[in-house]
Amino acid sequence: GGDAEAEGALGLEDMRRELSALKVGTQEIDVRMTTVSFSVCDYCVAAYTRALSTHTSNVLWRPPLPTAPHPNGTAGSKPSFQARIHQFLDSAELHANLQEFALPGLWAEAGLSPPEPPGGASKTIPVYLFDLSNEELLLFDRHHQVVAYPDMVLAVRTRAAEALVDFQCGRHVMALRPHDVARPLLAGVLQALWAVAPPSLAWDAADNAAVESHLWAVGLTPFGPLGAGRHLSFVQVDAGLRNLVHAHANASLAAAREVLAEFARFGHDEAPLSAAAAATLSARFNVLRYKLARAARTAAMHNFNASLYFALSAAHEVGGISEVLRGGAEDMATTVTCFQEPDMPLQNWVAVVGVVLSLGYLYMRNLGTFKAK
């Protein structure tokens, strides 16, 4: 009963339904929840406490209205700025701590088996949600409820009251609900697993970097303080599936580039190969180009099942290219040639003899001059 209530509060059932739109082929997406208390998880406490930090800011304090007239006839204290110390979690520090503590004992204390290493048939992204009973606002880096990394998602939930943020939409000041993390949690999982960028990120060609702009970060989206939905739109689903295809295609290209770079030290690509091996290498390259082109074309038509098939099968051609090149390298033999000093050319000998005779003539001439004197 407790787990079902917690899953409902976190919106895990809605998350399962929304993420099912990102399945391709025979893929399965599973969302599981395991509860671990601080009292039995020393690694959790260590990671959390090491990531706690503080920030001091000036807050406008307004005194409560008096219920009775002041004895001196004054209105009481006036509003004033006061220094307040706020706690927050350093997401980078917490990420490093969880990476350090995950394998030694954190997973064992949680009663879970460690995730498979990258490159396997499945991929597991842990979501570390710190569900606290604090009644004070606690965020990551003072602004975020959820922070996504390529290998994990960090989230924090407290019992604090709503907090106003520095954003307005339609003249309405936006509010942050610290006790409701369902929407940002879905956005964090979408970022970590499918690399879907928030709509507030835009590319600046002048700086050659991503910059934050909230101009279009509105609507029924799970991202950002201006989002107001827990559902994935067509754009986000399309971006997630397209990123999946691009990731596999990029992995094949990176592997092919690595093999060619290793083989480039032998000179021309086909120099050490026999005629049959060179023909096989050319055929493999042509098939690789065809599969990558088909993957891009079918993705443009939103046929992601076929697109993912071509992107995954491109790895087979890369393996064939590597096999052909390594076979050619094995057929190569190492030879050692001793260096022999070449004989001096005849014209050099003539020049040396001429210089010696000239010096001798000058010496004898000077010697005869001294005797005559």
UniProtKB/TrEMBL annotation:
PANTHER family: TRANSMEMBRANE PROTEIN, TRANSMEMBRANE PROTEIN-RELATED. This is Uncharacterized protein. It comes from Pyramimonas obovata.
